[in-house]
Amino acid sequence: MNFISLKSIKLMPMHKVFSLVILLLTLSSKGRAQNNETIITGNELESIVSYLASDDLKGRDTGTNGIYNAAVFIEDYFEKQNIKSYFETYRDHFKVDSLDAFNVVGFIEGHDYKLKNEIIILGAHYDHIGKGRLKDNDSIANGANDNASGTSAVMAMAKYFSTKKSNKRSLMFALFSAEERGLLGSDHLAKRLKKESTDIYTVVNFEMLGLPIEGFDFMGYITGYETSNMVKFINNNVGDSKFLGLYELSKAYELFKRSDNYPFYLEYNIPSQTISTSHDYEHYHQVGDEADIMDYVHMANFINKLIPAIETMANTPTKVIKLNE
Hints:
Largest sheet: 9 strands, mixed
Helix content: 25-40%
Number of strands: 11
Structural class: alpha/beta
Number of helices: 10
CATH superfamily of the largest domain: Zn peptidases
Order of helices and strands: HHHHEEEEEEHEHEEHEHHEH
CATH architecture of the largest domain: 3-Layer(aba) Sandwich
Strand content: 15-25%
């Protein structure tokens, strides 16, 4: 970049100084537009959630045709976006008693020869409970907020990074199955990666992003708030100290231990936490958790605001997110 000295500006005719000022203001304006551009749209999130939470998939319970079709949908999306599989195929197979189950795992290799060996996992569970209590002749628990919303966020971010190719560290996009049966999919993957000596830097998991949290001065919260400096890192890099906050009830409900971040914390002893925006959700595990009540503008705004922090996370020279002592 070439810089213009103050001395050279003083020697310019006034009309040229004026033209220079206009040029600099224009460039500055363009820079701001790019920084604030819409990366992920509500429409694309709605398209994903509407399919995953449709009656055709019958609640995406483990071992059913519904979750099989959900997996095919995610795989097709990854393939279309040129996102590679981490294993030989996208599927990471395991058993739930006699049932066949599988996580769906996509991968974007980092472009730094050294940092690419350090992997950031962006995860969410794509299964749900299948059936709920019958209400108005409906017994399908479609799981739009829980957790088609989190799944859509991971898929959309995978698309963004596949297009941008900005990550020095490698990114793994893990959609977990059998979360509703006791975190079985994430437990399997964490143990498999640990056995293979895979260097997992940190895990950012997503649960129930479909509606904005109300009555708090932050946009979302993170489980295990005190376990690491992840909140401070993310808030600093999105430029908003109130982006993620401390949700006291998450401790009372032990949410840190109740989502797919937890097996990675146990296996690796690394910062591994879940981000959510839902508070006291009345349709939790009920048939009312439908795609048409999600707030897709909120979801897009939240994810777009988060992306710069994930991008910075993937590019710092050293691992700056650490467990608190």
